[in-house]
């Protein structure tokens, strides 16, 4: 895990392996960003010119490494592109800083210590650079570098950048310290969500996930309750059991309750936790199942958000519900045509066993509603249709309350997560009419993401404010890494959920 400290150290005395500076696209070529003045001086004020000669323009994602001049104790300078330089009187945006810091940290695997000399005059700047750097330094290497190679010491994967110092900050300033501490807690938990997503499904079974939650609960003073398959049967959780019954790895429903003695509000978070989605009897074809370990990303995000809320000691109650099951085909699996009696008492005709997420979520939503929270947000890699609509980087937001949907969209924007509000058109409901049961788990193909949202809506308690985030697109990144986003699990929606909890705590929401 990468460590981060605030530092007032001057560049001339600083001991680090690399010093990171920012370079932006100016009207007349690359310009060195604020924070790097002393480094520029060590280059006799010619760092911008040197970078230009090396071909740097300051574009997003650009990395230029160069040897440091003799005035610096640090042997290497890394200039990272920030995109367009801000206009007069404007400052660098948080997302530009976050991404640039992420690119820099990601470009330094195997390095011990890097000092970041980026524009961090404000607590927001510190938060952005710290978040970006700590998220960018992430690597998932637990399954690499087998014993023989590790002993030879020549083949194992490089470990991520070990230590980051943010220069130009005040370690004793309350606001500076708070910004760094929040970023550390948030990114540690977000990176842990990424680890859970990346952990192969033969190791991360519902039972194993529940054990991770139980252990984290002990560490952070969160009350954790786990319903195993016997308790689920006793409780009548037909949705979760119906999805899990084809697997050798039985399902779980995990409740994590973080409470604050002075809390005025309670936020409930519900996560889809399909540890592997084969599609079940409606088996997915090859080409569609290779990344389906990511189908527990919603549960991972909820888990990370609850733990972060606890670590930050937020003045709000946050309850997390992880609906964990493995969707597999077997002689004991639910068949297309089966009818499940859900926890709510409603019956569902399962027309397609690959529409399993809504089944486990329905039970968890009903259960969460029983405790009458002020709001419920569910998070799920729910539909391929949402990816067709919004692409791979944007999650869809549906809700039974326009103001709440708008708030979540604005919060997501503020923390640097791409999202878009989506409707729940009432006319799509009739497509789920079933001749046999109260509702079918599938409806019209067109607007499939919205159909899924309409299904979930029926399991939310009367009068409870609810939103549904379909993160099927952004949860798992298959392309080349960019900014602070690695390949694989991304931790999508964690930052939005944490900021939502903070907003709920401070009372500026609903
Ligand atoms: N987990 C999938 C959705 C998904 C697809 C997530 C690709 C991430 C990447 C979900 O369980 C699913 O299979 N949905 C079906 C629903 C359909 C059968 C109504 C889909 O979207 O095709
Ligand atoms: Mn599925
Ligand atoms: Zn699924």
| Broad CATH class of the largest domain | Alpha Beta
Walk across the major sheet and give the strand order. 8-9-11-10-14-18-15-16
- Gross CATH architecture of the largest domain: 3-Layer(aba) Sandwich
Distance between the termini: 37 Å
Task: Name the shape in a single word.
Answer: elongated
Derived from helix and strand composition plus strand pairing, the structural class reads alpha/beta
Q: Remind me, CATH topology of the largest domain? A: Aminopeptidase
Q: How many structural domains does the protein architecture include?
A: 2
Helix fraction bin: 25-40%
Please tag this protein with its features.
alpha/beta, binds manganese (II) ion, 510 residues, binds ligand BES, 7-stranded mixed β-sheet, Aminopeptidase
Textual characterization of the structure:
The chain is an alpha/beta fold and 510 residues long. The chain has two domains: 3-172, 3-Layer(aba) Sandwich (Leucine Aminopeptidase, subunit E, domain 1); 204-335 and 354-430 and 445-506, Zn peptidases (Aminopeptidase), CATH 3.40.630. 34% of the residues lie in helices and 21% in strands. It has 15 helices and 20 strands. The chain has helices at 37-42, 47-53, 94-106, 123-136, 147-152, 174-198, 206-220, 229-235, 238-244, 297-312, 357-369, 384-390, 402-415, 448-457, 494-506, and strands at residues 3-7, 18-26, 29-32, 63-67, 76-84, 113-117, 163-167, 223-227, 252-258, 266-277, 317-327, 339-341, 347-349, 375-380, 395-399, 419-421, 439-440, 465-470, 476-477, 488-489. It has an eight-stranded mixed β-sheet with strand order 8-9-11-10-14-18-15-16, with helices on both faces. Strands 1, 2, 3, 4, 5, 6 and 7 form a seven-stranded mixed β-sheet that branches. The protein has a three-stranded mixed β-sheet with strand order 12-13-17. A hairpin with a 5-residue loop joins strand 12 (339-341) and strand 13 (347-349). It is elongated and about 80 Å long. The model has no long low-confidence stretch (mean pLDDT 96). The chain binds ligand BES, manganese (II) ion (MN) and zinc ion. Residues 277, 295, 352, 354-357, 381-385, 442, 448, 472 line the site of ligand BES.
